TrEMBL record:
Keyword Oxidoreductase found: yes
Protein name as catalogued: Malate dehydrogenase
Catalysed transformations (reactions): (S)-malate + NAD(+) = oxaloacetate + NADH + H(+)
Domain Lactate/malate dehydrogenase N-terminal: residue ranges: 5-152
Organism: Salix suchowensis
Gene3D superfamilies: Lactate dehydrogenase/glycoside hydrolase, family 4, C-terminal, NAD(P)-binding Rossmann-like Domain
Family: Belongs to the LDH/MDH superfamily. MDH type 2 family.
Segments forming domain Lactate/malate dehydrogenase C-terminal: 156-324
Length: 331
C-alpha cells in the first residue's frame, strides 16, 4: 500500500476549506489510490468550527483518510506536510484600504512561510489560494528561501476552468473537448484569458476555438470580461465568494502538477516568472504550463499578437505595483 501523503489546508474552517477537505479525502486531488492525512489550520476564533469540520471528516468515514490534524498552531500544522494549500487569509472588508489588507496578509504569509520552511517535508509543493494570491505566494517565496521557487505556485486554475466553461456554453459542447486556453498574469480582474491557441475536438478533427466561435467581437470583449468578472458575479448571486469551484480547481492544480498533464495539453498556473514572454522576472505570474514528473514547465514559443501583448503587460504592471505595495508593508 502507498504511504499516506500529508496535505495541509490553511483556513480550513472557512468556505473553501469546507468544500476542499472532503474532495482531498475522497482522492480527487491525489488520485483514488493515494491515502492522505489532512492537516487543517485555522486561527483561534475559528477553532471550534474547525473541530466541527474534523468531526464531520470522521463521520464521513473516508477510506483514504488515514488521519486528521486540526490545529491553530502553524508549526504543528506544517510539520511533515508534502502538499500545502494556503487558503487562509484576511478578506478585504468594507471601508478598508488596499494597503491595510495587504499589510495583514503579508504578515500572515511571512510567518507561515517560516513555519513551512522549517517544518514541511523536503520538496513540499505549495499552492496559494488566498487573495491577493500571486502576491501572497511571492511573499511566501521570499520568506522561505530554502523552499525551491519552483515549488511555490498560486491558483489561477479557477480562471482557466471558467474560460473553458464559457467556451463550452457558447458552443454547446463538452468542456472536456476544449483545451489550451490560457490565463495570463494576476488572479484579479486584470488577468488576460487568451483563446488564441485553444482548440476543440470535433468529429472533423481539432479546430481552433476562434474558427468555431466565428465571433471575434465576443471573444475579444465579452468573453474576456465575463471571465475576469466571474468572481464578482458569483458574489452577487451567492452573497458569498466562489467556494466549490475554487476547491475543485485547487484539486485540479495539484493533481496535474503531481500526476502530470495529458500529452498536448497545458493548464494555467501562477508560477515564478523567469522572464518568459517578456514578463518581468521575479513576479508570480500565471502562464501556460505542462507538468511531468512533479515539475511544471512554461510552454514556450507561443505567438503573442499585439492585442495580447498589451494585455500581458497590463496585468504584469498590476503585479509589479502589488509587489511594491507588499514590500512597502514589510518595511
Ligand atoms: P473564508 O473567510 O470563508 O475562510 C478563510 C478562513 O481563513 C477563515 O476560516 C479564517 O479564520 C482563516 N484564516 C484567517 N487568517 C488565518 C491565518 N493566519 N491562518 C490560518 N487561517 C486563517 O474565505 P473563503 O471563501 O474560504 O476564501 C479564502 C480565500 O481564498 C480568500 O482570500 C479568497 O479571496 C480566496 N479565493 C481565491 C480564489 C482563487 O481562485 N485564487 C477563488 C476564491 C477565493
Amino acid at each position: 500500500a502507498k504511504e499516506p501523503v500529508r496535505v495541509l489546508v490553511t483556513g480550513a474552517a472557512g468556505q473553501i476549506g469546507y468544500a476542499l477537505v472532503p474532495m482531498i479525502a475522497r482522492g480527487v486531488m491525489l488520485g483514488p489510490d493515494q491515502p492522505v492525512i489532512l492537516h487543517m489550520l485555522d486561527i483561534p476564533p475559528a477553532a471550534e468550527a474547525l473541530n466541527g469540520v474534523k468531526m464531520e471528516l470522521v463521520d464521513a468515514a473516508f477510506p483514504l483518510l488515514k488521519g486528521v490534524v486540526a490545529t491553530t498552531d502553524a508549526v504543528e500544522a506544517c510539520t511533515g506536510v508534502n502538499v500545502a494549500v494556503m487558503v487562509g487569509g484576511f478578506p478585504r472588508k468594507e471601508g478598508m484600504e488596499r494597503k491595510d489588507v495587504m499589510s495583514i496578509n503579508v504578515s500572515i504569509y511571512k510567518s507561515q512561510a517560516s513555519a513551512l520552511e522549517k517544518h514541511a517535508a523536503a520538496n513540499c509543493k505549495v499552492l496559494v489560494v488566498a487573495n491577493p494570491a500571486n502576491t501572497n505566494a511571492l511573499i511566501l517565496k521570499e520568506f522561505a528561501p530554502s523552499i525551491p521557487e519552483k515549488n511555490i505556485t498560486c491558483l489561477t486554475r479557477l480562471d482557466h476552468n471558467r474560460a473553458l466553461g464559457q467556451i463550452s456554453e457558447r458552443l454547446s459542447i463538452q468542456v472536456s473537448d476544449i483545451k489550451n486556453v490560457i490565463i495570463w498574469g494576476n488572479h484579479s480582474s486584470s488577468q488576460y484569458p487568451d483563446v488564441n491557441h485553444a482548440t476543440v475536438k470535433t468529429p472533423a478533427g481539432e479546430k481552433p476555438v476562434r474558427e468555431l466561435v466565428k465571433d471575434d467581437t465576443w471573444l475579444n470583449a465579452e468573453f474576456i470580461k465575463t471571465v475576469q468578472q466571474r468572481g464578482a458575479a458569483i458574489i452577487k448571486a451567492r452573497k458569498l465568494s466562489s467556494a466549490l469551484s475554487a476547491a475543485s480547481s485547487a484539486c485540479d492544480h495539484i493533481r496535474d502538477w503531481v500526476l502530470g498533464t495529458p500529452e498536448g495539453t497545458w493548464v494555467s498556473m501562477g508560477v515564478y516568472s523567469d522572464g518568459s514572454y517578456n514578463v518581468p522576472a521575479g513576479l508570480i505570474y500565471s502562464f501556460p504550463v505542462t507538468c511531468q514528473n512533479g515539475e511544471w514547465k512554461i510552454v514556450q514559443g507561443l505567438s503573442i499578437d499585439e492585442f495580447s501583448r498589451k494585455k500581458l503587460d497590463l496585468t504584469a504592471d498590476e503585479l509589479s505595483e502589488e509587489k511594491a505595495l507588499a514590500y512597502s508593508c514589510l518595511s
